[in-house]
Specification:
Helix 1 packs across helix 2 and helix 1 packs across helix 3. This protein has 7 helices and 4 strands; from the N terminus they run H-H-H-H-E-H-H-E-E-E-H. The chain has 2 domains: 3-63; 75-154, 3-Layer(aba) Sandwich (Glutaredoxin), CATH 3.40.30. The protein starts with a helix and ends in a 5-residue tail after the last helix. The protein is α+β, with helices and mostly antiparallel strands and 159 residues long.
Length: 159
């Protein structure tokens, strides 16, 4: 992403929200929707355009869990730790995924293929424990099934 493109995109967002209360958060939401995260060059440019210190922008980004500072993975893995899933063994699944992919929750694998997140409920309590990958729900998952499930996504070559 070059600086001119970033400036043009942010300029249109800032113009839309300029002078409105809460504009920093609204512009950050739109940046995140556009990029999937808030890139540093975009935060720098936003700081200049809104005349807000960069430290303030990062205060907001790091305070709200929604905002991300790194690109999302190609496939999002959501591990449910709601009560039913937790009691049926989802912490074991989470640890297995973390170990297999060498990634911590809230982070993206080094190859950019997977993003691991913990959620409190996927609304599939009757199928506990549940994981969701790229929008597809897997229920009654056992630790020995994790490798097979993940391999379906790591073998995909589509762009």
């Amino acid at each position: 992403m070059n600086q001119e493109e970033v400036s043009a995109e942010i300029n249109s967002l800032v113009a839309k929200w300029k002078g409105k209360p809460g504009n920093l958060i609204m512009v950050l939401h739109e940046l995140q929707n556009h990029y999937g995260y808030v890139p540093r060059p975009a935060a720098l440019e936003l700081s200049k355009m809104l005349e807000v210190p960069l430290a303030r922008i990062y205060e907001v980004i790091t305070f709200y869990n929604l905002f991300k500072l790194e690109p999302p993975g190609k496939h999002r893995i959501s591990v449910c730790l709601g009560t039913a899933c937790y009691l049926k063994g989802s912490p074991v699944l989470l640890n297995e995924i973390k170990s297999m992919l060498n990634v911590e929750e809230g982070r993206t694998t080094s190859d950019g293929l997977f993003q691991l997140e913990v959620v409190r409920c996927l609304g599939c309590c009757g199928l506990a424990p549940v994981i969701m990958i790229a929008g597809k729900v897997y229920g009654k998952v056992k630790k020995n099934e994790v490798m097979e499930i993940l391999s379906q996504y790591s073998s995909h070559k589509e762009g």
